[in-house]
Amino acid sequence: MIKILIADDHTIVREGIKQILADTADLVVAGEATNGHEVLEQIRKEDWDVVVLDLAMPGKDGLDTLKELKIEKPKLPVLVLSMHPEEQYAVRLLKAGASGYLTKESAPEELIAAIRKVSQKGKYVSSSLGEKLAFYLESESEKPVHEVLSDREYRVMLMIASGKTVKEIGEEMFLSIKTISTYRVRALKKMGMKNNAAFTYYAVKHNLLK
């Protein structure tokens, strides 16, 4: 029996996953978490076979949670299930220790197959993401400019590119306006850009916005 912890701040998503897994004999949802802090509490209290982790949770997001989780439980498989397209975060998450990445638009059978595979210490990525990863590894010297950004600088850049204000981003990330502004300035400098419009143009050009 594969013991699963589901982490997502939306009740309807958690219930949907439980319904998908209800008819499987070998998969059981034995716990739920609504944010990163609850995930870390749960993995400290009990042993799990797989964590299904949402990327966009309030406060400590999925990426920060994943990094802390892998420090405490480096061998615990984590399957990231996200609404964000693969182009945005998949490579960063896999580099941070995720065992697999699926978008929430994936078919139920794919979710079941992914959980089974990562529980056996395998890696699960879609065929299209597999191609992207191969290209990424082959072209280390030709990485896109946004790869120089830290995870938080990258997230701030994407949110600005999508039209969010510094104040809105601060509220969503639970950080001060000053901190968000600092990330913005650093990202502009590292990417050799002058304003927010440049972020938007770049993100659209590189298919980083959904």
Report on the structure:
With 210 residues, the chain is an alpha/beta fold. It folds into 2 domains: 137 residues, 3-Layer(aba) Sandwich (Rossmann fold), CATH 3.40.50; 62 residues, Winged helix-like DNA-binding domain superfamily/Winged helix DNA-binding domain (Arc Repressor Mutant, subunit A, Orthogonal Bundle), CATH 1.10.10. 52% of the residues lie in helices and 13% in strands. The chain is built from 10 helices and 5 strands; from the N terminus they run βαβαβαβαβαααααα. Strands 2-1-3-4-5 form a 5-stranded parallel beta sheet, sandwiched between helices. β3, α3 and β4 form a beta-alpha-beta unit. α2 runs parallel beside α3, α7 crosses α10 and α8 packs across α9. It is globular.
- Domain count: the total is 2
Structural Rg:
18 Å
Q: Considering the protein shown, what is the CATH homologous superfamily of the largest domain?
A: Response regulator
Distance between the termini: 36 Å
Architecture of the largest domain in CATH? Answer: 3-Layer(aba) Sandwich
Sequence of strands across the biggest β-sheet: 2-1-3-4-5
